[in-house]
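hey can u check if this looks right to u? its 589 residues, i copy pasted from the old doc so theres a chance i mangled smth
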Amino acid sequence: MRICGGKRLMFQVSVPPISIFATIICLTLPFLPPILSLQSAVNVWPKPRLVSWPKPLARSLSTNFTINSPYHQNLQPAIIRYLRLFRTEHHHPLITPSVNVSTSSPHLQTLSIDISDPAAPLQHGVNETYSLSISEEGETANLTAETAWGAMRGLETFSQLVWGNPSVVPVGLYIWDAPLFAHRGVMLDTSRNYYGVEDILRTIEAMSANKLNVFHWHVTDSHSFPLMVPSEPELAAKGAYGPDMIYSPSDVAKIVQFGLEHGVRVLPEIDSPGHTGSWAEAYPEIVACANMFWLPAGSDWGDRLASEPGTGHLNPLNPKTYQVLKNVIRDVSILFPETFYHGGADEIVPGCWKADPTIQSFIANGGTLSQLLETFVNSTLPYILSLNRTVVYWEDVLLDGIVKVDSSFLPKEHTILQTWNSGTSNTKMIVEAGYRAIVSSSDFYYLDCGHGDFLGNDSQYDQQAGGESLNGGSWCGPFKTWQTIYDHDITYGLSEDEAKLVLGGEVALWSEQADPTVLDARIWPRTSAMAETLWSGNRDEYGKKRSAEATDRLNEWRYRMVSRGVKAEPIQPLWCVRNPGMCNAVESS
């Protein structure tokens, strides 16, 4: 809200009269049992925390429908966007619901938005609560939110409630909604394969529709350095795959602003000291074991130089390492206003550091690899904190079995650890140590798993007799189905106090075998499953897992995402949708 002379400046947008062909959307009523037919369900995804709709009634939306809202520079584009969606989406459901449309009630003319704290910035922990009320009579629906970001969530919900020709909305409806977890994200690796800006924007838009709020951008790695850093331009000029595969500062500004207009934070990750082989194209003197074959002939796994092709670790003993890295950190903090900075610090491979002569001398004089990592962290973490950032690291920095730092180097009030190994046990270890956690367990949330491996001349696949499937051909196989993701409880096995340290979760798409041609299908609708569990949970009002009930709703939501331009993969044959219950594992009684 902008206050001018004590007056509230209102922003109003009108929808011109339009011709709409007959459509009806599905709605989901959480008070009814899971076996309820989708024909009478209120299908909002993620499922709201509280829905009251005692009678299946609806009435028409005016062709001159407007939205009244206090002015907010990021909410205003969202209002325009959603009104355009009302005008052009024309969603036709897979199964037509049974709803009584009133012909006597006046048309709904206005959605009135009220925001308590319009100045609240988009940052971790911002209040996303909203309530939506559409009465049986009257010309105005009311959307109330604490912040502009909560209002955006409410607008998305309203957009999923519009149907018909003329357009209609449910009435006598009340929704109260708020997320269970503050951090709900998608991690995308843009180093191994490049994604254009439009691909990233499309992903952020789909995230917003699923009420996700963090785009974790793993922008650099050993394979390429596609980010143009103004003070270190040679890193991208020499480390990117090509001049047409670089994210310029203007590209970053566009992505960050797009995120703000969709309620999605853009969290940058500059992984270091490992995963930095691409830095050697500009600064070979600061990178150990760069451009070497990852698994020397005759070597055991413990003697590898990297865990996959693409070698290179920054050398913590070279002062120039910190000169370059601090320039990168400073510029990234300017490019990205996000208050979290992800420093990576995962997968320190002993063989890589041991291949460097200066590190060999350090070890010969009694030094250890863990001391090297402690030197690195102690030389960079305070600088990151001086830029008013909270540091996020992958779990390895504390939990790795060989190279890790003492917890005294990681102040708990300024450090967040992101899990990816050992299922729920590593989350437990992190919160027991008093750290906040973001959960990205590869057992549940890694979207690249089960798609094979990318190594060439690999004889393990020469199995004429069949038999073992090699776990999908990938280290983290099998494929993580949407049900696997939906049924995962990220606080499983934690005490109530420990669970409070879990900020939320992220799915991760590593891009060894992904690029823009498969991006949408790899992410959606499996990520929608996580989105609902982190927003409103995966259990019904009786405490039972609701993945069975969610199947029909996710089919409908996937179909709607496709109509919005997201090429989400199907989860069932269309026949299953048209024949509810017939594709279940167990026949419903």
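The radius of gyration is 25 Å.
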